[in-house]
């Protein structure tokens, strides 16, 4: 019975509430219709305003166009520019090509023949390959570009009066995991400081005595076919560690016919610190070792043996602005060499051991567009052992030179340089007074220079 | 056990990017400032060029190479302003993330409406930038474009924080709108200046002043006596509001010119931090505009 009443009550309640909901719904629909109408009206009004605004903007743009066109000369600048490219994208040229002209006028108190025969006794029989008058060092063509996302390719092709050579042609990896890099082809070894630089970046026309004595007279330095691996470790200061495997054809250090395969190995470390906002130091040791077969040790004799050259470099550079700066650079080289020296006329063979060293120090002060430089270079600093057949030779006084230089840059791309060398590299010979007037010009997109 | 360790390792390696800050390297101070506005505490910023340095003559130092080694993104001005050192830094960084073509190689000028393009330029015209005038950081409208592009790039590289970057961009835009109404009140319209270098062309169009001459005869070429004479003649004919120079570029020449003509030298900061009290791009622009008044 109770259940019946409850059911009835529920039914009544449901029907009543249903009616109420029905009425409610109708009124709500009406309300919604009204809102819709109102909204439609506002939308129409807004549409009108938008159209009006559009027209206004159009007329404004039309009015402003001549003005902006004058200011920018670029009517279609509204489009976002495409990537500009870091490797000289401005020229839209791929690859980048540059030409460096390096020529000089030369005057010495020695005749051309005297220069040619001016050896550094106990070090090398190679003379000075320069002529009084006008000399064209080289016209150097440099080409470089990214090959693809994984490699950059560089080639340096100096054109001299004797013809064209490939000084450098190598690729560098760009996408190895963090810190690692491989360079392969023909390249200037990272041994020492001057060696890896092209001669047109040098602060003086010529290279210093230790380079001439141990690495060779010319600009090329240790410029070899081979592979280089370098690593930049995540340290708080810059350090690069590297090793190279090289063919070993440098004529002074190894001789072109030293062995049948790659036999020269180098290792180097370079560290750098910023001592202040504007001053930086760079320093580090290098070593190169390999087999030697050459005829430049003594006249009329062939040498076969092993050579190791050690180096230590130091550079301090202070450059507060484009118009002022100061740089000190120094390198110390030490060579140990031992093997058999064959006299080609007599056919006798003697044991030769050489432990010799040398260094240079140079300073350059930059003031506006002028640079003033001085250099002192010397051999037989701490070691001057020349043991032939077990007997130590008396090598006499030390070979040395002193240099003064002044240059003027018209712009970053042109430079005139005047240099004087007082050379006492020939222990028994005359003093060599040399004057150079060098001109360096660069056109095209040249790769940025290292520190 | 092995599985547990493996999954633990996986979790660790996957979760580290969320906690590690993004390494941002910027060539110029204003780019670093913009990155700080957008990245806040989610980025670790190092700026390569000092505010006191002239951005046209930067030499690649080994410490700069080291700074780019760990970069997740390298941001630069572009338009060849950094051509003298940046290609070398990028190659020597031994960092695949910032090589050209990678998302970590961010050229700000891509987003800019570039003016003064000179595709036929050669070096007899001095140090011209054939791609266009590179000093667009004085232009609020272009800096806004760069900020938008930058927020997008940061989100591409660090998608976990995309919402954060776009929120920061929104507040940057808000701040810029407020500033622009302030800046619009500065009365630079109709003013006439000469400048040492072509630094202020973007600003001139945006703020309505005129530049009628340059102390440099050609970009990057110091003035000759003859050029100065001609300039003095122009300066006598026109009523000038000042000679514009930057703290690092051409101050001495401008002062000499000022002595001869009586036109005052106005030292305009060239970048964020180059004068005191310009710690971010907004305060830098404040200082620039009040110096011109």
Can you walk through the features of this model?
The complex is a heterodimer of chains A (451) and B (293). Chain A has 451 residues and is α+β, with helices and mostly antiparallel strands. Chain A has a domain at 114-137 and 170-408. Chain A has helices at 2-72, 112-116, 209-214, and strands at residues 96-108, 133-148, 151-160, 163-164, 168-173, 180-188, 223-231, 238-246, 264-274, 279-294, 301-321, 324-343, 349-367, 370-388, 391-392, 400-411, 414-424, 432-444. In chain A, a hairpin with a 2-residue loop joins strand 3 (151-160) and strand 4 (163-164). By secondary structure, chain B is an alpha/beta fold. In chain B, strand 1 (22-26), helix 2 (29-39) and strand 2 form a beta-alpha-beta unit. Chain B starts with a helix and ends with a helix. The model of chain B is unreliable at 8-18 (pLDDT under 50). At the A-B interface, helix 1 and strand 9 of A face helix 3 and helix 4 of B.
Strands, helices and their partners?
The complex is a heterodimer of chains A (451) and B (293).
Chain A: H1 2-72, E1 96-108, H2 112-116, E2 133-148, E3 151-160, E4 163-164, E5 168-173, E6 180-188, H3 209-214, E7 223-231, E8 238-246, E9 264-274, E10 279-294, E11 301-321, E12 324-343, E13 349-367, E14 370-388, E15 391-392, E16 400-411, E17 414-424, E18 432-444
Antiparallel strand pairs in A: 1-2, 1-18, 2-3, 3-4, 3-5, 5-6, 6-7, 7-8, 8-9, 9-10, 10-11, 11-12, 12-13, 13-14, 14-15, 14-16, 16-17, 17-18
Chain B: H1 2-19, E1 22-26, H2 29-39, E2 43-47, H3 62-69, E3 73-76, H4 86-92, E4 105-107, H5 140-157, H6 162-185, E5 192-195, H7 201-207, E6 210-214, H8 225-237, E7 242-245, H9 251-261, E8 265-267, H10 281-292
Parallel strand pairs in B: 1-2, 1-3, 3-4, 5-6, 5-7, 7-8
Helix pairs in contact in B: 2-5, 3-4, 5-6
């Amino acid at each position: 019975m109770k259940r019946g009443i409850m059911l009835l009550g529920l039914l009544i309640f449901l029907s009543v509430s249903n009616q109420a909901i029905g009425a409610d719904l109708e009124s709500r629909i009406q309300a919604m219709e009204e809102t819709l109408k109102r909204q439609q009206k506002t939308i129409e009004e807004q549409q009108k305003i938008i159209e009006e605004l559009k027209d206004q903007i159009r007329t404004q743009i039309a009015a402003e166009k001549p003005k902006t066109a004058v200011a920018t000369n670029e009517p279609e600048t509204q489009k976002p520019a495409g990537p500009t490219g870091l490797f000289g994208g401005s020229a839209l040229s791929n690859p980048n090509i540059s030409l460096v002209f390096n020529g000089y006028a030369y005057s010495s108190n020695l005749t051309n023949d005297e220069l040619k025969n001016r050896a550094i006794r106990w070090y090398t029989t190679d003379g000075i390959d320069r002529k009084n008058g006008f000399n064209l060092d080289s016209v150097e063509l440099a080409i470089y570009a990214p090959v693809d996302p994984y490699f950059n390719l560089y080639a340096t092709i100096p054109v001299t009066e004797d013809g064209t050579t490939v000084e450098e042609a190598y690729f560098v990896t760009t996408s190895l995991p963090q810190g690692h890099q491989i360079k392969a082809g023909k390249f200037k070894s990272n041994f020492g400081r001057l060696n890896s630089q092209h001669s047109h970046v040098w602060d003086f026309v010529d290279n210093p005595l230790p380079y001439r004595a141990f690495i060779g007279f010319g600009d090329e330095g240790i410029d070899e076919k081979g592979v280089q691996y370098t690593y930049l470790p995540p340290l708080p200061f810059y350090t690069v560690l590297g090793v190279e495997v090289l063919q070993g054809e440098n004529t002074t250090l190894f001789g072109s016919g030293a062995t049948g395969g790659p036999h020269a190995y180098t290792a180097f470390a370079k560290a750098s610190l910023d001592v202040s906002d504007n001053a930086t130091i760079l320093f580090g040791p290098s070593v190169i070792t390999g087999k030697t077969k050459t005829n430049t040790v003594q006249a009329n004799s062939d040498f076969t043996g092993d050579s190791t050259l050690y180096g230590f470099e130091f550079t301090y550079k202070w450059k507060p602005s484009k118009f002022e700066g100061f740089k000190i650079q120094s390198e110390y080289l030490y060579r140990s060499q031992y093997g058999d020296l064959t006299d080609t006329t007599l056919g006798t063979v003697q044991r030769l051991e050489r432990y010799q060293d040398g260094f240079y120090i140079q300073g350059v002060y930059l003031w506006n567009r002028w640079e003033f430089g001085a250099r002192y270079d010397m051999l037989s600093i701490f070691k001057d052992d020349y043991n032939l057949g077990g007997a130590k030779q008396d090598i006499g006084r030390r070979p040395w030179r002193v240099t003064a230089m002044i240059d003027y840059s018209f712009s970053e791309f042109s430079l005139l340089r005047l240099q004087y060398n007082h050379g006492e590299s020939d222990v028994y010979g005359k003093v060599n007074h040399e004057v150079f007037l060098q001109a360096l010009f660069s056109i095209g997109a040249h790769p940025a220079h290292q520190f | 056990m092995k599985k547990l360790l493996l999954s633990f390792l996986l979790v660790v390696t996957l979760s580290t990017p969320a906690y590690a800050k993004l390494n941002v390297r910027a060539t110029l101070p204003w780019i670093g400032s913009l990155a700080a506005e957008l990245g806040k505490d989610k980025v670790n910023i190092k700026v390569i060029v000092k505010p006191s340095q002239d951005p046209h003559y930067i030499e690649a130092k080994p410490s700069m190479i080291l700074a780019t080694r760990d970069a997740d993104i390298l941001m630069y001005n572009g338009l060849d302003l950094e051509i003298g050192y940046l290609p070398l830094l990028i190659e020597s960084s031994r960092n695949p993330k910032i090589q050209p073509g990678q998302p970590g190689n961010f050229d700000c000028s891509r987003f800019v409406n570039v003016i003064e393009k000179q595709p036929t330029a050669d070096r007899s015209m001095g140090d011209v930038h054939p791609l266009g005038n590179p000093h667009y950081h004085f232009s609020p409208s272009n800096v806004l474009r760069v900020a938008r592009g930058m927020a997008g790039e940061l989100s591409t590289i660090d998608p976990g924080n995309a919402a954060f970057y776009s929120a920061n961009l929104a507040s940057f835009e808000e701040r810029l709108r407020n500033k622009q109404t302030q800046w619009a009140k500065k009365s630079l319209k109709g003013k006439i200046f000469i400048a040492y270098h072509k630094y202020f062309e973007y600003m001139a169009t945006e703020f309505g002043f005129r530049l009628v001459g340059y102390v440099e005869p050609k970009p990057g070429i110091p003035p000759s006596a003859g050029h100065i004479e001609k300039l003095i003649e122009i300066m006598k004919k026109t009523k000038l509001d000042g000679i514009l120079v930057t703290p690092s570029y051409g101050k001495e020449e401008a002062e000499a010119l000022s002595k001869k003509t009586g036109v005052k030298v106005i030292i305009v900061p060239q970048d964020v931090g180059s004068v005191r009290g310009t710690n971010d791009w907004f305060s830098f622009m404040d200082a620039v505009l009040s110096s011109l008044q």
